[in-house]
Each structure stands twice: as structure tokens, then as C-alpha cells.
């Protein structure tokens, strides 16, 4: 079984991971409507969290896979356009989880090409089910050949397990809001090509 990294809350107040902000806008009617529909089809926190994860993973294509050049970053925009990068899809999943009272955090990895070049930050989500004492990371990036991320809380099935020998890093910090460097490039990029040129290379 894979080792689960110890995750660190940046904010000791768990309520911070239920808050809404400009990117995780779970007060938005579309987010609420989507969350209510998923909850009606499930009815308990674990089943809902799994359904929300699979909804974001499977029904919202990663823009690099689909070729979509638009840059979305608000959760509501991700749900509306059905488009987003890893960061945007993480915002959408966090919003859906928070909309039903499940604490959700944003977390990051530093990934690289197979030769160790072109390092860039990758975004994913950690969640903590009601009554649980631990966080679990999941990656709603979207599967493709060679990528098979799953919803598992007892062991991680992420899109990209890090390769330390290539300088890749798992950052243990749990962010209540998007990292400022990530939010900056999302907001300032006119299209995905520009975003790709500006991806944060460190956090």
C-alpha cells in the first residue's frame, strides 16, 4: 500500500475550509444546483463526495485534453463552460464539497517532464469527511491513457504520483484558498497558451 503523506492545515480553523471566495464561489446558483442534484442522487457524505469527484473528473474535460483554449478559474465558470485546467477543476470540486458541508482544501504538487525539465505546479484537492480525523487527497484532473485517478480515502490514487528522482515534490500544505501564484496566472492569462507559458514553477 502506498504511503500517505502527512497533510498540514495552513489554517487551524476547520471552518476556513468551508468558506466561499471569488474562486470557490459555492454560493453561486449553478454550484448550489449541481450540488443539490448530486446530493439527491446519493444522500450521504461519502457517496456525495465520490459522486462530486467523478462528476468533475469525468464530465468536465481538462482543457489540455480537449484543446479548449479558454481559461476558467471560478468554480461556477468551470461548471458553466465544462472546461478547465487542473487548478480550475480543483476549484470546482472544492466548491461542490463545501456546498454540502464537507471541508475541502486546495493542495499542490510540483511536477516535471520525464527528463526532469519544465517543472510546474499541479493542483488537486484534499477533503475531510464529517466525523473523520484525517484529510485525504484526490485528483479530479481527468483520466486519459496513462492517468487513472480514483476516489479512494484509505490510499491515494492520484493522477501523478511524484517522482522525487526528477525533482518532483508533494507539497503537504492544505490551502483554504487558491495559492496566490496560481490565482494570479489564471486571472491574467488571456488563453491557455499564455497560461502554459506562465505556470508557476515553484510555490
Characterise the protein shown here.
With 203 residues, the chain is α+β, with helices and mostly antiparallel strands. It has one domain (12-198): C8orf32 fold. It is built from 7 helices and 6 strands, in the order E-H-H-H-H-H-E-E-E-E-E-H-H. Strand 2 and strand 3 form a beta hairpin. Helix 1 crosses helix 5 and helix 2 (45-59) runs antiparallel to helix 5 (86-99). The radius of gyration is 16 Å and the shape is globular.
Give the structure's gist in a few sentences:
This is Transglutaminase-like superfamily protein. This protein has helices spanning 29-40, 45-59, 63-66, 75-81, 86-99, 180-188, 192-198; strands at 8-9, 104-111, 120-127, 136-138, 169-170, 173-174.
What order do the strands of the largest sheet run in, or round the barrel if closed? Answer: 4-3-2-5
Query: What is the number of independent domains?
Result: 1
Oligomer: single chain
Number of strands: 6
Order of helices and strands: EHHHHHEEEEEHH
Broad shape? globular
How large is the count of helical segments?
7
Give the overall average pLDDT.
Answer: 94
Under CATH at level 1, the class stands as: Alpha Beta
CATH topology: C8orf32 fold
CATH architecture: Roll
| C-alpha termini separation | 29 Å
Largest sheet: 4 strands, antiparallel
Helicity range of the residues?
A: 25-40%
Output the radius of gyration.
16 Å
User: What fraction of the residues are assigned to beta strands by DSSP?
Assistant: 5-15%
Pfam families: Transglut_core
Protein name: Transglutaminase-like superfamily protein
InterPro entries: Papain-like_cys_pep_sf, Transglutaminase-like
Organism: Streptomyces lavendulae subsp. lavendulae
